[in-house]
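User: quick one, fold this
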Amino acid sequence: MDSIKNWLVRLASLYKDSTPDSKMRARDGARAETLAADYLKAQGLYILERNYRVKGGELDLIALDGDSAVFVEVRLRRSAAFGGALASITPAKQRRLILAARCWLRHSGRRGNSRFDCVLLDQLSPDRIEWIKNAFSAD
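Assistant:
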């Protein structure tokens, strides 16, 4: 009986991840990342990579600002009910971003300055972008 219950729980979680809402969130997240990348390019940054993934973390965007590597977290939050986009970048999320950034730096061989920026949106509109440079540090 427990194995059937476990199977049903797993099946329900798979269904939940493929619902139209989750697909819409994924599509909106990708659009937010594209808006952020376009905005940062217009500000003079060069986008090196998108969606860099390692076990334990992911970087939405990796850019160059002069000779500095910039690791960018993009957040779209349509409601400020739980503190908005910036509040969603918790210390645990920051640790995962730092882990991914260290992996990228090690694999790329890049030395020198780096920083963590956040691009926050409350709508999918370039007019609604808030760019926070040096949002947090790896120290």
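User: anything notable?
Assistant: The chain has four helices and five strands.
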